[in-house]
């Protein structure tokens, strides 16, 4: 079975209008999804099932709540969001039959059957769920979250993940490091080597770039997430600004691209769709730098 981030597969968004259908879903251990409409004062979640409103009791709301490793904010933040669940049974509440659901059970299955079997270097589908200054949190399956550190989002340096990705975005990610209780993912190895990115440009072309930092010795301008060049210092420029630049020279052995700013726009760049050079399978080693370059940037997985 394929385990996906929550809210990705519309086929899982089920509507139930009979007890018979609910019992069939319970017997088959079917994984379903629905929208949380309420988190009560005891932090139980109520899910819209169409003809019914199901309840996910607090300790069944997320893996880690029962164990004490997850805070209740993980439940409160689910209101108006899609969550996965399986039907466990029924109880009566104020005279009404209420389906009893479990998100925790689905997450346990996902962890055992999918996440625990991932190897370092495996490329997976993920969904951006939250952005912090230190990195981007991703749903790697059934609402289970991991982190892509900010420096792993691209080779081109950014100040905040919001400059590269946005919440709700579906992305590819590669498992960088597996520890006992933590998985760390990366994105930059999937966005192409220096040569692959540089092949899209030629000396003499004028193209659009994004200012990433303004230093006393020059301005770093991103041409692609894994490719940046240096232009002469201009005090009026600011990080995030769109500019047009002419490519003056390209030096693979030094990983250098010399640029000249033609025009600066009063416009700040926003994240767009990512172009992947690798999007499936397993990577054992990734080498960003061309052979013979003075600076070597590599990633070795599984060591």
Keywords:
303 residues, mainly beta
How many β-strand runs?
A: 17
Distance between the termini: 29 Å
Instruction: Indicate the structural class.
Output: mainly beta
Element-by-element helix/strand order: HEEEHEEHEEEEEHEEEEEEE
What share of the residues lie within helices?
Answer: under 10%
Count of alpha/pi helices: 4
Query: Strand order across the biggest sheet?
Result: 1-2-3-5-4
Instruction: Report the mean per-residue pLDDT as an integer.
Output: 95
**Which regions have little confidence, pLDDT < 50, spanning 5+ residues?**
none
Our Rg estimate from Cα atoms comes to: 24 Å
- Strand content is 35-45%
Query: What overall form do the CA principal axes indicate?
Result: elongated
- Sheet with the most strands? 5 strands, mixed, barrel
